[in-house]
Write a structure and sequence with these properties.
With 378 residues, the chain is an alpha+beta fold. The chain has helices spanning 2-20, 33-38, 49-53, 106-137, 143-169, 174-183, 234-239, 362-370; strands spanning 28-30, 42-45, 47-48, 60-66, 72-76, 81-86, 93-94, 99-104, 189-193, 198-203, 210-211, 216-222, 227-232, 245-248, 253-263, 270-276, 288-295, 302-305, 310-312, 315-322, 325-333, 344-349, 356-360. The longest helix is centred in the N-terminal third of the chain and has 32 residues, at 106-137.
């Protein structure tokens, strides 16, 4: 009963308009100014999406400065061991080769021992191959014996090279490996160094800590590489396209490079990723920043208040004010457009910026349009 009373005035207005209005053309609703006033119909102008996105009138986005995934490097230990000394601290600038930590590693000594054994075996295999080749030239041994010696030398050499590369990956330099072969002195320590230029974001080890092979010791963010990730509402996301420019609250502008195809389940926002157009150090990681949409890439759409859009079957329409009343104009609504009555949404259709569209009294207009309450209406 409450529902019927609440909508009774709108139904009365609909019936009166339907009985007095007549269609001069398909979609045209002929109404006098007095009828429009009595029905409580008000209008708002259509806005150009391109112009509304520029200047101070564009939507404002809030975001955070982050490091690109390809700009984060993890420094890890190749062999297990115990942290003997830490040479760096967080937020320190590092260069390729900067010492990060020194580890005491028993497995490293075992790797050096194995390499020595294999290197000696490879050298002996080469010596044997050289002797057998000389004996073959003198006709003392058969060719098959030389072939066996050659195969054994190749296998011994491959095994020694594999262990050599393992030592290099563990942080042992070429000079240290050559010294190991000449002196046969094993070293239980290895210094882990940075591989890229950047800033140490985090040091995850402590002196005396036991480290397993592959465990991260620190993370480095490469200099100059920055992303800004904004959280856009559904209304804002409907206006943004890849390639749009965002005017940052400081540090120039940024270009939109990606828009998420899904929304955040917690706050229903859409992730918009942008990259600064200028290089420099004015943006800091984890910094909060605001931006205004300046220009849309190839923007040709229009924006209307969400309250102006009505549905008829599967199609969407707006009622455009003209000299004889209103005309129902079919429009396409942008994906992700909002339903809120106070929000503007992007549409396409036979509209022009500045056209007045009805935003109130739509129940009466739609009823008059489809003939609700007229004689013979169902």
């Amino acid at each position: 009963m409450t529902l019927q009373v609440r909508h009774f005035p709108a139904l009365i207005a609909t019936a009166l308009l339907a009985m007095t209005a007549h269609a001069a053309a398909p979609g045209q609703i002929t109404l006098t100014p007095e009828q429009i006033l009595r029905a409580g119909i008000t209008t708002a102008p259509v806005i150009s999406a391109a112009s509304s996105a520029g200047g101070t009138g564009g939507p404002t986005l809030a975001g955070t400065v982050v490091a690109p995934t390809n700009a984060i490097t993890v420094i890890s230990a190749v062999v297990s061991g115990v942290v003997r000394q830490i040479h760096v601290q967080s937020l320190q600038q590092v260069q390729p080769g900067t010492p990060v930590a020194t580890l005491f590693s028993q497995p490293l000594m075992e790797m050096q021992r194995d390499y020595l054994h294999l290197a000696i075996a490879a050298r002996l295999a080469q010596d044997k191959l050289a002797r057998d080749e000389n004996l073959l030239k003198e006709g003392i041994i058969a060719l098959s014996r030389v072939q066996d010696s050659r195969g054994a030398a190749q296998q011994a050499g491959i095994a020694a090279k594999e262990r050599y590369q393992a030592l290099r990956a563990a942080g042992i330099g070429d000079a240290a490996i050559r010294a190991l072969v000449s002196s046969s002195t094993l070293s239980p320590t290895v210094t882990v160094v940075a591989g890229v230029q950047g800033t140490l974001q985090e040091v995850t080890m402590t002196p005396g800590q036991r480290i397993d092979a592959g465990m991260p010791l620190a993370t480095v963010s490469k200099d100059g590489a920055r992303w800004i990730e904004f959280q856009a509402s559904r209304q804002q996301a409907a206006l943004i396209r890849t390639g749009d420019l965002l005017q940052l609250s400081h540090c120039g502008s940024a270009k939109v490079i990606a828009i998420s195809a899904q929304v955040n389940s917690a706050n229903q926002s859409t992730l918009v990723r942008a990259v600064p157009t200028a290089t420099g150090d004015c943006l800091k990681l984890n910094e909060f920043i605001e931006a205004t949409l300046q220009g849309m890439a190839g923007a040709t759409g229009l924006r209307v208040p969400a309250a102006a859009v009505v549905r008829n079957g599967e199609a969407s329409f707006v009622f455009v004010r003209n000299a004889t009343g209103f005309e129902a104009v079919k429009v396409g609504v942008a994906a992700g457009a909002a339903d809120g009555a106070n929000d503007a949404i992007a549409v396409t259709g036979k509209l022009a910026a500045g056209n007045p569209v009805a935003v109130k009294g739509l129940v009466a207009l739609k009823g008059a349009w489809i003939g609700l309450g007229a004689d013979g209406a169902p």
